[in-house]
Amino acid sequence: MSSGTVSIAKRCHQKSRSGCQQCKLRKVKCDERRPVCSNCARHFSNIQECDFGIPQKAYNDGPASATFLTSVRRENPSSRRATDARRRYPQLSFTAGAGMPDPFVAYPESIVPETQMFMHHYFSNFTSKSFPIVIGYQSRPFLDSWWSMASEDTVMFHATLLLSALDLEILKGEDDGTRPMLLLRKECIRLLRERVGDPVLSVSDHTIGSVLALSIVEFERGDLRGVRMHIEGLKRMVKIRGGLGAIRSTNPMLANLIFGTSMTVMTEPQFPPGVKKPQPCRDLPNSTSDTPLFEFESLGVSTAHAKIMREIKFMTNAVSLHWPANATPNYCSDVLVRLLYLPQPVDDGPLVASISECCRLATAILCFLPFRNDYPNPTLMINVQLHKLKAVLETMIELAPSDHPLLPWLLSVGGIYALPVERGWFIGHLVSVVTDMSINSWDDMKPHLVKVIWIEFFCEVPFRELWEDVTKKLDTLDLVNLDL
């Protein structure tokens, strides 16, 4: 090496590649400390050991595995599939529960030679990005319930492989469609067309799940015409089945996926609430802490809006308290549907109408916070609702006092989702509000947020980051005033 050459050490990769499941779900960097990483030790006192592998609940006994076992499927006569899979993918843990078949031993046949590769990616990667059953982070339907359906149905199995192939294609940056993905998509459509004439199979849970998967694929590919075609077909199938409520009574996971997926890909809810309303879950707590709840009606929220906000408040409390994720599976998406279809109470005056509409939009937006970057990605739908929230907030800010108790929460919900230009609008109004309300620190700010609707597991980080931007803006304004 010449004397004029400077040796530069190559920077090593610092990003976590095998973080714990909790950090992956929260989309935060994990320091991989054992047995409990720093993030989980700070936020979850009840965690004794982090899970750094595939959640074992994917293979545990339960209602999903019962369906799996009672189905009639074609078994592979040998265990060569599983042996090959273990050798090629040693990081997968095949600890099936009692009576639960190894997924690589028994699954429908496929014309795609890369089937095991897509299955491996499905279990090791895709399931952590799938739409949860409820607002809680503990339950992942693509592990808990979806696979038991996909493994017993050829169409749904190919649709599941297609989702996995799509994710691999996106990760590799291949936008034109790989041959396996095109082959899987063609096979899914062919198999679905064969079911059109069957009055039972054409509207079965498996067929509906397959159409949902295809709508996600077309949405991620940017084929909006294909999305509309699949959603219209989905509406017809749900109508034949007796509505979303009828499906929810037998398959809550599928009903919630129908609601969430259709709204996400179309940016608006597609299934109005049924006539018969479910009974609220009686096992939900009333509060997450000693902080009293807001009396929403006394703050200008209409009675109908306040009632549903309290129901959602109870559900989010269950999540914050780490209650079992199955506490509200029959209830979660239904209450969101009723919220989204609430009419604006124009007869109660412009102030009540604007406050109620702001609360409706902000509550719906916040409920999708756990699903950011999942499949299907709700960013487009959230942005549509966010623009509506901003427009109504402008009216509310003109009519309501600047120290209205709901303004910190409403502006914060909009701020955590907004793009940089719009984020500045929310921060600017937050600066005025917190100044008028004498909110000087995060410890002062957080109680105003928790009193409304708050999911500790998901809200703490983005809301606190927004508050830091607000304090920076406040410091900048103070410096300007000093110069003047």
From TrEMBL:
Positions in coiled-coil regions: none
InterPro entries xref list: Fun_TF, Zn2-C6_fun-type_DNA-bd_sf, Zn2Cys6_DnaBD
Keyword Transmembrane helix: no
Database matches in PROSITE patterns: ZN2_CY6_FUNGAL_2
Alphabetically ordered keywords of this record: Nucleus
Domain named Zn(2)-C6 fungal-type: residues: 19-52
Annotated GO MF terms: DNA-binding transcription factor activity, RNA polymerase II-specific; zinc ion binding
UniProt cross-references to Pfam families, sorted A to Z: Fungal_trans_2, Zn_clus
CDD domains: GAL4
Domain of life: Eukaryota
PANTHER family (alphabetical): TRANSCRIPTION FACTOR (ACR-2), PUTATIVE-RELATED-RELATED (PTHR37540), TRANSCRIPTION FACTOR DOMAIN-CONTAINING PROTEIN (PTHR37540:SF5)
Name recorded for this polypeptide: Zn(2)-C6 fungal-type domain-containing protein
